[in-house]
Amino acid sequence: MKKIIKSYINLLNALDLKDPIIYKGIREGLNKFLSNAYLAGPGHKYEKGHYYSQKAYEKVKNRDWSNLIFEHMIPKQKYIQKPCVDMAIKDELDEEKVNRLINDYWQIAIITKEENNLLSSKSMPKGWDEKDIFYRYKKVGLILINKNDLNW
């Protein structure tokens, strides 16, 4: 992830994000950059989660990719991209701050489509303390298991 963060910072520094046309034109690319870079390595995308629901884990273990969701546990646009772009626009882009944002908020859950339907929206529910990455899931009773605790 360190190489991806470095490349993300290089990308943000290379763009004139103060130019509204450049920013509007590249905004979608910025939104997809981290995910695409993260998924570029070997392995299937559903094997690259940080956390799994039990149902999703069973499907992945059996290499059944149907009805799975690669879910950003914390909305990346609001909690990573926007703050990083804002720092870049102000010429205050700092590797330590970007690192912290990505380490705190870049967490991927692999869940089923049915489980995804339980989540009320792609935003964090009211009352979130901006720390508990499991908050959205706890609100609907969905338990996630750390990839390191699963038997691959």
Helix content: 40-55%
Helix and strand element order = HHEHEHHEHHE
Q: How much of the polypeptide forms β-strand, as a percent range?
A: 5-15%
The Rg value, from CA coordinates, equals 16 Å
Quantity of strands, as a count: 4
Our measurement of the CA-to-CA distance between the termini, rounded to an integer number of angstroms, reads 21 Å
Question: In order across it, which strands form the biggest sheet?
Answer: 2-3-1-4
Tell me the major beta sheet.
4 strands, mixed
Count of separate DSSP helical elements = 7
Shape: globular
Uncertain segments of ≥5 residues (pLDDT<50)? none
Number of domains: 1
Mean pLDDT level:
94
**Broad structural category:** alpha+beta
Task: Give an account of the 3D structure.
The chain has 152 residues and is of the alpha+beta class. It has one domain (2-149). The chain has seven helices and four strands; from the N terminus they run ααβαβααβααβ. The mean pLDDT is 94.
Question: What are the defining features of this structure?
Answer:
152 residues; alpha+beta; 9% strand; four-stranded mixed sheet
